[in-house]
Amino acid sequence: MNSQQFREAAHAAIEEIIEYNETLPTRRVLSAVPPGYLAPLLPTTAPHTPEPFSQIQPDISAHIMPGLTHWQHPNFMAFFPATTSYPSMLAELYSAAFTAPAFNWLCSPAVTELETVVLDWVAQMLGLPEEFLSKGEGGGVIQGTASEAIAVCMVAARERMLGRMLEREGLKEGTEEWEERKGELRGRLVALGSEQAHSSTQKGAIVAGTRYRSVPAPREDGFRMTGGHLREVLERCKREGKVPYYLTVSLGTTSTCAVDAFEEIAGVLKEWPDVWVHVDAAYAGAALVLPEYQHLTKAFVHFDSFDMNMHKWLLTNFDASCLFVRRRHDLTSALSITPSYLRNTFSDSGLVTDYRDWQIPLGRRFRALKIWFVLRSYGIDGLQSYIRNHIELGELFHSLVKGRPDLFSVLTGPAFALTVITVVPKRPQQMRNASKPDPRHEAFTNDFTPDAEKQALFDANAVTKEVYELVNSRGEIFITSGVVNGTYAIRIVSANANTEEKYIRRAFEILVETAEEVLGKGEANGSAN
Amino acid sequence: MNSQQFREAAHAAIEEIIEYNETLPTRRVLSAVPPGYLAPLLPTTAPHTPEPFSQIQPDISAHIMPGLTHWQHPNFMAFFPATTSYPSMLAELYSAAFTAPAFNWLCSPAVTELETVVLDWVAQMLGLPEEFLSKGEGGGVIQGTASEAIAVCMVAARERMLGRMLEREGLKEGTEEWEERKGELRGRLVALGSEQAHSSTQKGAIVAGTRYRSVPAPREDGFRMTGGHLREVLERCKREGKVPYYLTVSLGTTSTCAVDAFEEIAGVLKEWPDVWVHVDAAYAGAALVLPEYQHLTKAFVHFDSFDMNMHKWLLTNFDASCLFVRRRHDLTSALSITPSYLRNTFSDSGLVTDYRDWQIPLGRRFRALKIWFVLRSYGIDGLQSYIRNHIELGELFHSLVKGRPDLFSVLTGPAFALTVITVVPKRPQQMRNASKPDPRHEAFTNDFTPDAEKQALFDANAVTKEVYELVNSRGEIFITSGVVNGTYAIRIVSANANTEEKYIRRAFEILVETAEEVLGKGEANGSAN
Fold it and tell me: How many CB pairs under 8 A join A and B?
């Protein structure tokens, strides 16, 4: 493909992308293809002779589009958003043109230096403590995903903990004794996260090769991890001879966007100063662009790392996970393969940053460009209005739900534009029966209430699940469900560039209609019995 | 940025990219900026108000371009190539538009399914054994980098080895006994790689939390790992109670593009059947598109995984590392966080692939698109001519070097377009003196030869290093050096889309001129003494 062919092909691709975006509302948000749809449509081997772009491009609309789930669709209200924007796409195009596996500074100084600059911009924009900026001992680095950031921090935490333990035992690095003992101690390490922490902490523990234990975060605590529950788990570990070395705290859990009790947790951890605390703010961290949320960052001075995905709520195409650490030396001393006797203050001082030592892979893409383009194209003001608008629409949705207590119960929220609801089962007769002590066996009275509650929960779970599945199978909107401490719930979060009030209202209508349909059916069944 | 603004901005970006590519030869290949050049040129915080693209774009040429090292430059002959192409850029643009953190099939079925299809294309194009295709128990997955692929395989290998050991001891998964014993056994695990294997194996061992030991691959073996040296290391491990669980073999080592003795190694490992063998073919694996190299893949049926970067030699912009495994279950059983009692034959049969269980991060980009575009735009024939041309130019360079034995000595190559050379020091007088026994202390005669050799090596290293540094500091070409088993050597590899014979010849001229200058200076110094 020569320059002129590229120009023509690129213009055609751009028109297709514009057309795609403008026609999004007319498409089915969730792909309806069956598993294995694609292979039969394509040749079984690569072609031997070159194909012109005019032959390749039509396959995008013919074969790829039907298999896409449209994350920018105004009716995409599932998981968390994953947004893109035109400025971000342009930056990704430049990045592809300037391709380099920029594993060190020299490979392309701009790749490293722009990353340092824009991550300082992000840190300030989010109101992170100064410690996380590059000018001191901390700094930011772009990872692929929040889960990768967690794995990186866990490996660094494991090495830091083992190093400290071994040094306290008077052992010397590099000796066989050190290695032997390190192996023994490694088996005692435990990573912690709340029950509501994203599963990537559990996976990170697999990668790091350590145990994992979860901290209760029950409904009565609003699904937040509290200092009290954390202390219980820490003390149990101690009694059992286990060594907690890492903890994920969440700013916005996956199920309900709960925020852990940071100050309490920091207080408890004063007695466990070697535990690495990582703040997983993958989605909700974006809300820290708003001053009214920045009080949340105060406790971060006690923590070791913080991660937020620009590629979720902040208009930057995947991947752009921003990890900040309080002491970059914690990462580089674990992940640099330059032996310690070759390390120098020149490198550690940050004059030259080799980000390969801040991550698992060696090579890296020029991802800072898209963050740079997005921050400049929207400006902090633009991003603030963007986030605020979604939060307000989340509040609107919540108020609509509250207006129909006959159909819905709010489990949590609105929190960061997410509302989590359950459908209210219509079995008043049965429930009353179950709750009322039966005079024939009064001795069991005390057992009756829990049974009734269980039955009520069972009923609620059943209808909520039915409503959820019916809504998604009809395909007008796409939502996700989750089981939160035994409760089956529906999560609704609408937060991309195409989100609008009318889509929120329509989504609520769909939920109402579907709930009425399901509950009506239940009543019909009930009366038939 | 609305559609019309995007159209205009994109057209401008495309013109800039075309102009960049067409003027590459006129640019300085290696960026000459000093550390910290960028921050003073940019604001210290993100702007509050939005900036139009017309304000952003000029900063690319003003501030970013000077900080780029141009990997597509015809005079880029350093490291290994990292190529891009117009079709690849277009695919990256589409990928950014369709952004999704496609962590499971449903998130965008096309992302998963196209990946399976094109990786089968790649496997067949490279002549990999059938076992690595998706139709059986194997399959391919796109990782970010070859180093990430290594880390993933090491974690899977660690879990597979520990699982087998624990089962043989009669323990039951999920019990405390299993966990306890697992911790003990983990401390005995050792990952292996040859001395010449890329350092990412050593880093992978850090990530996986195990020991690492290297296998000698000395000059007399052509820097290849042989069965004999591997056996020695395996037996030493056994004597010491260590358990080798993973081995990297290389198809094209970083320093010299050596190919390990696969058949011999497979033979030795019959006695260690639990060791996971990973073939790191990050760069040279691309040459397997040529039938004349495909005999190399025969031994792979004995190995567990193979990785090759499309983003090095095959015109696909970073990142596109293609990892193939013989049994995908080895990856998913280690990396899936779905508990075993929830796993099903439906998923394991491959009807629906969840690539999140084949990698460390959760989310993933739509990277299959660019491989698809590149394979179709060039065709297998096109890629074959492309690779063959570079290999022939590598042979040309080698023949030029051989024509000047007074200046250069070939350490290795040409291999996969890479030639590794040293500069021949001009100290005949001193060397003869050093080699000739001094009659005053004949007793030490036997010590004289090694000293002379050491001195010769020292001299050669000194002049080679001087030539290398002078060439790079002048900036017309960019090459890398390396120390291979004590020998300081210069690596020259030219293999991107802009590579041409005239640039190869000019690079050789520069090396000759610089070597003559350095050696002439040495002589002048010598005669002055």
Answer: 415
* Angle at alpha carbon of residue A384, lines to A382 and A389, rounded to 5°: 100
State the burial class of residue A502 (Cβ atoms within 10 Å of its Cβ: 0-12, 13-18, 19+): exposed
Q: Is A67 in contact with B113 (Cβ distance < 8 A)? A: yes
Give CA angle at A111 (A105, A114), nearest 5°.
Answer: 110
Query: Under a CB-based contact definition with an 8 Å cutoff, are residues B262 and B296 in contact?
Result: yes
Contact B47 A375 (CB under 8 A): yes
Closest by Cβ to B145, choosing from A63, A147, A363: A363
- Work out the minimum CA distance from B441 to partner chain A, whole angstroms: 39
The pLDDT-based confidence of B364 (bands split at 50, 70, 90) is very high
CB-nearest to A361 from B144, B363, B376 is B144
Task: Please give the structure tokens belonging to residue B261.
Answer: 């003795």
- Tell me the backbone φ, ψ of residue B479, rounded to 5 degrees: -125, 165
pTM: 0.94
Give the span between the Cα atoms of A147 and A143, in whole angstroms. 9
Average pLDDT over residues B52-77: 98
Q: How far apart are CA A322 and CA A303, in angstroms?
A: 16
* B341 has a pLDDT exceeding 60: no
Asked if A377's CB is within 8 angstroms of B53's CB, the reply is: yes
Q: How close B57 gets to chain A, by Cα (Å)?
A: 9
Closest Cβ–Cβ partner in B96, B105, B144 for A92 = B96
Instruction: Please tell me which of the candidates A44, A337, A381 has its beta carbon nearest to residue B202.
Output: A337
Distances (CA, A) of B214 to B193, B251, B308, B489: 5, 17, 22, 21
B248 at A interface, C-beta within 8 A? no
Instruction: Report which of A39, A323, A351, A150 is spatially closest to residue B36, judged by C-alpha positions.
Output: A351
Say how far apart CA B282 and CA B145 lie, in whole Å. Answer: 9
pLDDT, position B278: 98
Distances B103 to A164, B106, B199, B357 between C-alpha atoms, Å: 36, 8, 29, 9
pLDDT tens string B149-170: 999 999 999 999 999 999 999 9
Domains and CATH numbers, chain B: 3-68 (1.20.1340.10), 100-366 (3.40.640.10), 375-528 (3.90.1150.10)
d(CA B146, CA B306): 10
Cβ-defined contact of B93 to A88 (cutoff 8 Å)? no
Amino acid at residue number B497: A
